[in-house]
Hints:
The chain has 264 residues and is an alpha/beta fold. It has a domain at 105-168. The protein has 7 helices and 9 strands; from the N terminus they run E-E-E-H-E-H-E-H-H-H-E-H-E-E-E-H. It is globular and about 45 Å long.
Amino acid sequence: MSAPSLHPIVPVIEMTAVSVPAQHDLRCCVLEDVDWSVAPGDYWVIGAMHNSGKSDLLAVAAGLTPPQKGVCRLFGDSTLPAGEQGQRQRLRVGLVFDGGRPFHRLSVAENVMLPWRYHHHAGESDCGDRTREILELTELSPLADRMTGTFGRAWEKRLGLARALVLKPDVLLLDNPMGGLDGRHIHWWMSFLDQLSAGHPFLDNRPMTLIMACENLRPWRNRPHCLAVLRQKHFVSLGRFTNLTSVSEPFVRELLQEEIPAAT
């Protein structure tokens, strides 16, 4: 029997018996008894129907919303310390909101700059290089001076990704970023997220931990990821699969948009 490691791996996110509240009403519980552990470098895909608690779960995971019950740990801390140390911990988690949530009074470049300028107290000249780099990375350079609302929703979603990446977080949470996109944009997202997971040069080749919540599992049918579903107010972890079409869970097949044979 091998000796235990002197440096055990600390989960980047760990939930124990967590009750997840709705963001619009913290008295309302949308998920109960969530037990979940995310290791560094994991790539989780969480499938769920509309209004099933996806956004609320990610808000708790990001430390934006406290759980009603239970314990949620970020990087091993159940309660992040106050002050500068706590802020550094929170900035290790990036969140891509559903729809991107751009600030409509700002240009694309100004939207991307905002987290960098706010957290580093930087002037425009100080963050110009970082902004140009992230705009090129996400293919948003041609839109840099455009105001949001003057181009398609697909690009607003990508803007949300650029803004979440500008601080180079360790963990990236994504709320249904490919919902409603055409095949060209979906292919770009899948390829880019695979590069982040493997270790992108933008991240100094450091693999990023990814957690994706979505309503359609079809893009991940033939990709090896950790899988979970939200069903009847519960988080159900299904393990790691190399091919989702092999999962016998009927709800997974529904999210794959496959027909379920009628009972005989």
